[in-house]
Design goal:
- By secondary structure, this protein is α+β, with helices and mostly antiparallel strands.
- The chain has 4 helices and 8 strands.
- The strands form 3 sheets. The chain has a 3-stranded antiparallel beta sheet.
- The N terminus is likely disordered.
Length: about 200
């Protein structure tokens, strides 16, 4: 599929100065017959994008997550890349790591507390001009965040007919909360973790 390309106006366009445009291809659709009662019988998608579309599958990858009927989980391929990271050496590497791990913050209980030593490294230099120093506390936080990603729970989708539980914890530095619901066996299942 090509996009319409505009050319600059030429002097022989006449008094209006209209743009000349290249020919535009009509999009080519392919009709898929889903054959299910709950979905439209036919759906049109752009030809060539079909390999990116999945219908009627038990689970799939979406933006670094595995989405299934059980809920949303972290994508193991993405997490293993984070696990393979060596000790961070520069502020840029710390910033990149915190950014990547922050993407999965909703899976990590007390994320802000765990990440605090690393975010302290990202603060502006001290008044005396010294730069932040990697401490043992930073190493512990770095390893703890990597391990939390490996053992991240599957976040369930909310059931709107059941009551929700909200657990909140706060200190002078951070606030954290958990949104969860109980299943039929009276076990808590997290829906979302939040902390700042």
């Amino acid at each position: 599929m090509s996009h319409q390309q505009l050319q600059s106006p030429s002097h022989d366009d006449g008094p209006t100065g209209d743009f000349k445009s290249a020919a535009v291809e009509e999009p080519i659709f392919e009709t898929l017959n889903l054959g299910t009662l709950d979905a439209p019988q036919n759906i049109k998608i752009y030809k060539g994008i079909q390999e990116k579309c999945q219908f009627g599958v038990p689970s799939g990858r979406l933006l670094g997550h595995i989405v299934s009927s059980r809920g949303i989980a972290t994508d193991p391929d993405k997490v293993t890349r984070i696990l393979a990271l060596p000790k961070l050496e520069t502020v840029s590497e710390v910033r990149g790591f915190v950014g990547h791990v922050s993407y999965y913050r909703r899976f990590i209980h007390s994320f802000a507390v765990l990440c605090q030593p690393l975010t302290n490294l990202l603060k502006k230099p001290l008044l005396d001009g010294s730069s932040p120093v990697w401490t043992a506390e930073c190493s512990v936080a770095f390893e703890a965040l990597k391990q939390k990603l490996v053992s991240a729970p599957i976040l369930v989708a909310p059931c709107w007919t059941k009551p929700f539980q909200v657990y909140v914890d706060a200190s002078n530095v951070v606030i954290g909360s958990i949104l969860s619901q109980k299943d039929d066996n009276n076990r808590d299942h997290p829906i979302y973790f939040a902390s700042r």
